[in-house]
């Protein structure tokens, strides 16, 4: 493997933080990845993005201090400003008040550990494409589709995957025909989950059991995203499956399925607090206790969903296994949580691929793949 980095190590730009509501989770993910990155083979270059979108050079020591100081950490952006080169050359540009503009380290590959809008929605991926930098994960189109629950479901339906009943309310719909939007929403059966179309980590989601709660739930979702998706609550088990791309256009690989069970009080579903704040509120099981044929079906459907959106690198597909024995896909996440306790990592660990090996495989896939049209 060729490298521009010293001592023949591959220089990896690790992007973390970002402008989305999942900023803090991104920092936790980056900290976890750095803990298992083989630094005899890879040289990490940490680039943090503040909540207002400024890029700054960071360090392992700074990230560790941030994680240690706060339950939900925030990146302050104290190092030199970072600019990516456009139109050739992989050396990042650094700027600070003392030394002005200077050339920084050249990157071989970028590992974007950014969740939510302005991170996994195709925006950063487009920037990396313009900078001619290889990167881990889905490309521009797949990232955008995978971030938008509306277009994601359309892609699933087009590929013949079974999805639950849903409705969409756009900002235009809400502005021009609010009553019609509410009427379409009431065509669904209660309970209904009201979600921002383009947010993650279960933020902005409300379960409603009475239509009198609908207006308030839409307002909560619209605080995260003007476009809202409403889904009929599915009676069944929540099953997840991790997907890892194949090398050289080989078929993507699917992990053993895992299951999430919410056990804490005060959680009507697997919400943000159950995921990241109150660890005792949820139980993660892998492999899930499923009949062999159902497990195989879910693994096959996860790969189909990955291909339906044009996925690359990695993804986590989330399903419902209904009380009637049906498998329904709920959504796909093209940059899933990647902390040591995240389901993506746990499922691959149960399937035989440990955390460090998983990071190495993702970097290998990114370096194998060309930048641009493919």
Automatic annotation (TrEMBL):
One GO molecular-function entry: ATP binding
Positions that bind Mg(2+) 1: 318, 331
Listed EC numbers: 6.3.2.4
Regions crossing the membrane: none
Domain of life of the native organism: Bacteria
Database matches in InterPro entries: ATP-grasp, ATP_grasp_subdomain_1, D-Ala_lig_Van_CS, D_ala_D_ala, Dala_Dala_lig_C, Dala_Dala_lig_N, PreATP-grasp_dom_sf
Biochemical pathway: Cell wall biogenesis; peptidoglycan biosynthesis
One Pfam match: Dala_Dala_lig_N
Residues annotated as binding ATP: 149, 193-195, 201-202, 231-238, 330-331
Alphabetical UniProt keywords: ATP-binding, Cell shape, Cell wall biogenesis/degradation, Cytoplasm, Ligase, Magnesium, Manganese, Metal-binding, Nucleotide-binding, Peptidoglycan synthesis
UniProt-annotated binding residues for Mg(2+) 2: 331, 333
Domain ATP-grasp residues, every copy: 153-364
Residues at the active site: 22, 201, 342
Subcellular location: Cytoplasm
One of the GO BP terms on file: regulation of cell shape
Catalyzed chemical reaction(s): 2 D-alanine + ATP = D-alanyl-D-alanine + ADP + phosphate + H(+)
Cofactor(s), names only, from the UniProt record: Mn(2+); Mg(2+)
GO CC annotations, alphabetized: cytosol
Protein family per UniProt: Belongs to the D-alanine--D-alanine ligase family.
PANTHER family recorded: D-ALANINE--D-ALANINE LIGASE, D-ALANINE--D-ALANINE LIGASE A
Function: Cell wall formation.
Protein name, per record: D-alanine--D-alanine ligase
Record organism: Rothia santali
């Amino acid at each position: 493997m060729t490298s521009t980095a010293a001592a023949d190590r591959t220089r990896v730009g690790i992007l973390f933080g970002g402008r989305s509501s999942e900023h803090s989770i991104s920092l936790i993910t980056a900290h976890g990845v750095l803990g298992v990155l083989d630094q005899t083979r890879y040289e990490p270059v940490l680039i943090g993005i503040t909540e207002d979108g400024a890029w700054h050079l960071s360090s392992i020591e700074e990230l560790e201090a941030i994680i240690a100081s706060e339950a939900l950490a925030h990146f302050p952006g104290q190092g030199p400003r970072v600019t990516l080169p456009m139109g050739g050359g992989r050396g990042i540009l650094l700027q600070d008040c003392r030394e002005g503009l200077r050339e920084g380290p050249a990157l071989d590959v970028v590992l974007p550990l950014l969740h939510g809008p302005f991170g996994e929605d195709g925006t950063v991926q487009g920037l990396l494409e313009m900078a001619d930098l290889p990167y881990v994960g889905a490309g521009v189109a797949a990232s955008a589709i995978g971030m938008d629950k509306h277009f994601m479901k359309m892609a699933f339906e087009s590929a013949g995957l079974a999805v639950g009943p849903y409705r969409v309310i756009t900002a235009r719909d809400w502005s021009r025909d609010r009553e019609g939007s509410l009427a379409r929403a009431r065509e669904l059966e209660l309970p209904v989950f009201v979600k921002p179309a383009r947010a993650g980590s279960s933020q902005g989601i409300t379960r409603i059991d009475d239509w009198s709660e609908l207006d308030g739930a839409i307002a909560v979702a619209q605080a995260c995203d003007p476009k809202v998706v409403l889904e009929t609550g599915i009676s069944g088990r929540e099953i997840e499956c991790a997907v890892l791309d194949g090398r050289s256009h080989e078929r993507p690989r699917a992990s053993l399925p895992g299951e999430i069970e919410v056990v804490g009080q005060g959680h009507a579903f697997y919400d943000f607090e159950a995921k990241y704040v109150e660890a005792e509120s949820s139980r993660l099981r892998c492999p899930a206790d499923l009949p062999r044929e159902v497990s195989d079906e879910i693994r096959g459907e996860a790969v189909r969903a990955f291909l339906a959106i044009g996925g690359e690198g990695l993804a986590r597909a989330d399903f419902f296994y209904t009380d009637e024995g049906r498998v329904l896909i709920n959504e796909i996440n093209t940059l899933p949580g990647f902390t040591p306790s995240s389901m993506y990592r746990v499922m691959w660990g149960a399937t035989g691929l440990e955390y460090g090996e998983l990071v190495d495989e993702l970097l290998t896939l990114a370096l194998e793949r060309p930048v641009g049209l493919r």
